[in-house]
Amino acid sequence: MEVTFSDGTRQQYEDVPFARGGQGVLHYSRDGQHVLKLFTNLRPDRLSMRVQQVDKIIGDYNVVGNDPYWNDLYSWPDKRAHLPSLGVRMRRVDGLTRMDNYFYRVSSARLPADRRGWWLGRVACGVKLARAVWRLQQRGLCHSDLSEKNLMVDPFSGRLTILDCDSLVVPGELPPDVDGTPDYMAPEIVAGKAKPTPATDLHALAVLLYRWLLYRHPLRGPKQHAVQVDLDETLMLGARALYIEHPVDHSNRPPKLQFGADDVLTPRMADLFRQAFVDGLHSPGKRPLPNRWEEALIELLDHLVPCPNGKCEFKFFVARDGRPLQCPICHTYADFPDRLPFVKLQSPRQDHGAVSYGNEGQYPRYVVGWPERPLYGWHADTSLKPSPDGSGRPPDTRPVALLRFDGVKRAWYLENLALPQLKLGSGNGSHHQWQTVPVGSRAPLKHGTELLLGAPERGRKAFVELRRVR
Q1: 317 within some domain
Q2: Contacts of 61 (CB under 8 A, 6+ apart)
């Protein structure tokens, strides 16, 4: 099948579609590089509006451009098909698996071992998802169908790509073509009181993150709202939706809930889920923004340690401040030396002309060490961020230091890979001194060790606590 695009170019596609959906049929290009979506069931009075919508998504509202970093996060339409019918061209996504394959036992059991991933990779996918949705929100865009079937993932490497970006909504300009997928539609849409907006995407994002990280739906509990099955479903996800981990109303809590968000996640992540599914469930303006999810997920990565149980489904768990270093899923203790370093980070601030250091915000910032755990530039320097900068440049993910354990000496060290102003504190009171730790050397880490990770105006100070595993 030859396809002609609006710019006059032509390309050959397979005659037989590989998939069909509610909006159209999908064909692979014969060179294997692209996917073509030909729209079906378009009403004649909506044809010109659909053409305008596609052209604006390819042009005015394009969040990808020629940037390879953002291109990896979206399968963004890049051409409008003119003949044989109206459609859009997108890049073909290879090497990733559709997210819904991980949500059902039958399909997940069919996945080869190298596709099943680990929890570390799931968290990294969550970071990418929050980041991609935040970029849409900053442009005033609504995806309108964020769901398990429109996300391609690799829960080993943490790669993620959002599909179906040809039906984006701009309130007041680009109207919605679909209301979404029931499990991810905001309660106000399910109840028939609203259409997709950026605020409804926030609900879908929270549901996806909860389900992806905790292996269950946040609203599907045992509470029955009506005898009629269809009405019960509508009320459960709509007007009477109730968080299964609601802190006060336990009527929808599963009787055999293996673990709660507070058991598995960081306090910040658990708080965001409460905000999304208690405060914001029926109040769209109170739902957490994607950048807050991104920050919390990056913090979650800092707190993960490997689970030594090879049969553990998560393979990583959160080392919670003040709790035993034990996996909440399989109850195995961390298989490390007797003590692990908690590297607590404080930021510099000017205090009457002098530099002082303090915590950042409500939640203490720290990195939990394990052998070969990397530290990145954003851990050391407050001017660096783990997110793309204002121009869209991705963060530098080269480690600047490594936490190492010497099994013979039973001692922890910080190996300096790229911190030219790293200093190690010694002594106390008036005798406190700072010793430079050159790049390529290492600083010994003991309980109470202090480190300066950079220049005083922007370099963080680190305090080391060695915590017992049991």
Answers
A1: no
A2: 139, 141, 168, 170, 174
